[in-house]
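Hi there, hope your week has been kind to you so far. Do you reckon you could talk me through the fold, stretch by stretch? I've dropped the whole record in just underneath, so have a look:
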Amino acid sequence: MNVCDLFIGTNSERRQLSKIIEEWNTKSSISSISKEWRKKRPNASTENLSIILYNCECLSTHIADLDILLSVYTPQIFILTGVGSSIKNLPKMTSYYWISQEGTNSFGGVAMLIHNTLKTKITMQQSDFLLIELDILPKPIFVGAIYVPPSKPFPQSLLDKFINKPFYIFGDCNAKHTDWLCRQNNASGSQLKNWLESTGCEMIYPTKPTSKRSTAVIDFGITHNAYGWKADVIQEGTSDHYPVLIKTPVSTGENNYFRKTNWKILQFFLQCVFQYFNSLVHNHDQDFFFALFSAFLSSLWDRVSEYIPINKYRPPWPQYLVKLARHHNILRKRYRRSRKQEHLENYLKMKNIYLNEKSLFMQQKIEERTSYISQGNNIWKYVHPTFHPYASTFKGITTDMGIIKDHQLIADTLANFYEKHFENPSFDIGRIAHVEAIKNYEKISQLPIDPMTKITLEEVEKNWKRAQKRNP
């Protein structure tokens, strides 16, 4: 029986485990295989911007698509068109934030899901259109989202405002033309074609249809310069449109890496070779064995790990939830094709299972985080970015002679001022009021120090009412 058959995991994990076992069986010594498996952490590098464009055809019914695409492709910007009523209550996504704009009808609206590592600024908003300024290297660019309903003309006057700027506007324009691989033209497509010819702007579009209802390419990008930009259709999702993955030559800055380890494979492989290392204990002295075994553990850790750019880090989404989401989409497609009552019941049942499991998973994460925060001073790891030391700039002190900036002169001036301020008061002997005040002060200073009697609240209230009667 094959050892990999005992392993519980995905097909890709089985293939990786099978390759590791094959490498183990073909090497002559542990030292050689440890040397081969050892990896070095990559140096920091620049990462290019990745975007997904998707007409979700009402987000409330396609949340599972968003979960799958984020887990598999981890884009830095996710542009959604046709968001619908969910535009007012967008779901929270770990490591991302939303920018949205409502549409002219219940099926419109655009939204951008942007990774926390990107700095943006909203520059323009109107119905079914959103434009942000993205701060990247070597200079900022404008990224937009647009949705043009089928009955509306192409908004030439809107795009005319960005002709002389570095802009990249993506969306569903419902514009068809043979120039971007559609079989026929429509009015919006002809208007866009003429506008592109008159302005010199270009398009970013895939080579496959983005609509499932036809062979048309209606989800694309419009830009001042499309050089280096590439768009590919993703065969995923349950909407009437395919998602489009857009790869760019634009750098988002220096990028570091984190280690992602498959602990299941590591544990299973150690169980497989346990007896071999157990036999080595009796054949070698302890120093040699521990040195050999330590080197093997370190190299095996490298072998089952990979280094991934840190901006693609998201807390791992459980495989069972990904499988439930895919099965949910399959049942949804089956019902939409057949419209049978049986398929509808199966789809609704799976939908409830998926949403319940997802809610339980998110609730568990919240409870774990709350439990961690409540221990010791762990809360400061979350609120520390909010609190930071602040000290106003000190430019000097203002005197009758002007602003003093010399540190020693400032210290001498303040010392002279407070010495005079806190010294014993001086008085004029020739003034009767001063002399009497000094005499009264000396009499008071010679009185014994007795504690003052406490006054009750009732006495205060009684005297207050008495004073009110005297002064009506």
User: Anything to note?
Assistant: The two ends are 106 Å apart (CA to CA).
